[in-house]
Each structure stands twice: as C-alpha cells, then as structure tokens.
Request: fold
Amino acid sequence: MPHLSWPNAIIHCDADAFYVGCEISRHPELRGKPVVVTGKLGGIVLAKSYDLKARGVKTGQPIWEIKKQHSDIIVLNTDFEFYNDLSAKMFAILRQWSPDVEVYSVDEAFIDIKGFRRLYKKDYGQIAYAIKEQIKQQLGITVSVGVSTSKTLAKMAAEVNKPDGVTVISAKQIQEWLPKFHVSDVPGFGRNTVPLLEKFGIHTCADFVNLTQDTVKSILHRPGVDLWRELQGEQVHSVENSFAPNKIITRTSSFEPITTNQKFLWAHTIRQLERAIEALHYDHQLTREISLYLRDKAFNRYDWKYELSVPTKSFSILLDALKKIWREHFPTGALIRSSGVTLSRLSFNAGLQLTLFEDPGLIIRKDELEKSKHHIKEKFGNLAIRSASSLRLKQRLGPNKKNPLKTKAFNVEW
Reply:
C-alpha cells in the first residue's frame, strides 16, 4: 500500500443518466419528472430518469409495459446527434483541466490530474467539484465524479454519490473503503467472476485484497492480479490520452423515401456543412478541402472535391465552394438515398490567413461572425442559430412534424 496520500491522482467523470440528462438540458421543464428515452421505433427503454430507476424501471423494458405500470411517464425519442454534441462539449471541458483525458464511453472519461493542485491552488477533491460544476453550468447536465489513485478505484468512487456527487478516496483512505464495496462493484468482475469469488468466501473488496497474489493468480489469472493491485491503490492502467486531431470530418444523412427533390437535398447539405464546421471549432482546426458525396437508388456513389485557396472554417467560404460543386456536378433527376459533406486536409487553427486579393476587414468580420455563431450554439444548442436554407428540415421534436418532402411551401434559395 502506498505511503503517500496521492502517489497518483485519477478522476473518473461519469454523466448521470446521460440521454435523459441531455433532454432535460434543452427542456428544463422536464427536470424532476419521470422521463424515458426510447429508440426511433419507440419499443424499449434506452434510458430513464433516476426516479423511474427507483421505481424499478429497467433498461430494455418494453414501453407499453412501463406505461401500464406508470401512467405519468414522458417518452422521448433519441436524438444521437444532440447527445454526441453534448458529449464532445463535455470532453472539451475536461481537456481544459488536463491534457491527459481518456474517453471511456460517450458519457464518461478518466482524467489524470496528478500535480495540478499547485496550478489550480485546489486539492484534488476541489478540482473534481469544480469540474462537475463547470459541466453543470455550461451544459446543463450533471455528472458524478470519483477521485482516487487508480482508474479502478476512481470509477468505483464515481458510483458512490450518484447523481451529481463527488467522492474522494486517497491512498490513506483505501483500507476503510474496501470493506464497503462488494466484489460486484468492481468494473471488470462480471456475472461469472462474482459467483466464483463468492464460492471462495470472497464477498467484499477487502476480502479480495487480503488474498495473496499467488492465490489471486490461480483463480483469476493475470487480469485478476491487475485488479487486485489497482484496488490497493497502485496505478496499473495509466490514463491513455485518447484525443487525436481529426484527419477528416464527415457528416452524412440518409433519406427514406429516396428523393429527387434538389431543394430538400440542398437543405440537408447545408445542415451537414454546419455540423462539420462545428466539429472544426471544437477541435480548433481549419480545412483546405471540401467534398460532396451522393449515393443514388442503385447505390452508385458520386464524389466531388473542391480545393480552397487557404485553410478556413468560414461558413460563407465553404458554402460558396459547395454551391460550385452542386451547380457543376449534381446529377439531375437522380433518385438520391444518402448524401454527405467531408472536410479534409485539416490543420490546427493558427490564426487568419489571407490571400493577396482579399479584403482583410471583410475576412476579419466574417471570422468574428463565425465565433459569435459558435458561442451561441455552445450556450443554447446546435439548432439555436442555423442557415435559413435548413430551417424547414424535419425537427427532432416528435413524430407529428411535417415531412418537408410533402410540404408545398418548402422553398430554399441556393
């Protein structure tokens, strides 16, 4: 057992009921109400609010069954684009606190914060609390945070005070915490391992840690030994920085039914461009090449590229490039089943670059406009400010929205 309180310092940040939390962030009136998130077909529970969890509602249960038992539930369809957007923003906040962030899933991550007490003038528990509050204030979702000397203990600690809590287990506190954890609480001990351990009289993590290394190895082999060491506070598994700059950014849409409606397809293309540009902002990148692809009824793929004079993230510049591609190459009359926009030849944003013939004042104003749009989207969501060309696209607000393919008034200038 380490003698120092903090030989290492690892945070595990886990969003609370993430899909439900995302919905509540944009519909605050749902806070405290029994909310279920289901798939597009509305068949089963994908996520549920904590009060429904307390009532015994299980993930995977049929919606019709839950409605019979709980008539007050509010059922929402999934919006994975929105969830992924909030997920990316959450990880961006974590990287403000440490460069070493390992994305573990769409709603959880490990952060190595060893040595940052001096920089932030806070202890590790206070850093964890500050991270939790920043995510709540900026994104409107809650997270639970665990802090300890190994990834395993940090992840277990994050489960202790859910939702919206912080739990700290220093090296000197591990011995008092281990008897409180059942072996089923250990990430890595599955439904086969737990009964096996219990047959040997091992019920708590203290029971497990008190075994000799040879005994652990004989029962669970090398992976069991690694967990045995991690439960003692030793950092066997380091935080693997999972952030790598994008090489390309692609945003796509599929259409059912397939369509020849160019105005509808153009509106989707604009929306794809907006989403791709947001990704550039989050990763602090610029693009030098934009591509448009279409796939027709027979699954033939059309792909056209346009090279830009300088790297950019400007919506207006990229929009002009897309217009040129569209006007020159769109296959008139083709039945289209999917489309996409790709940004490639990416580089980090090192400031504005101008060509010889550009008006510097105009370029600066456009850059400020892009920054303002990005800040508005960060605060109010990706759909808070949009190109007028995409306003009439079907919204993800429920099944009763009109399909723009069937809307006579649908009219886009492009």
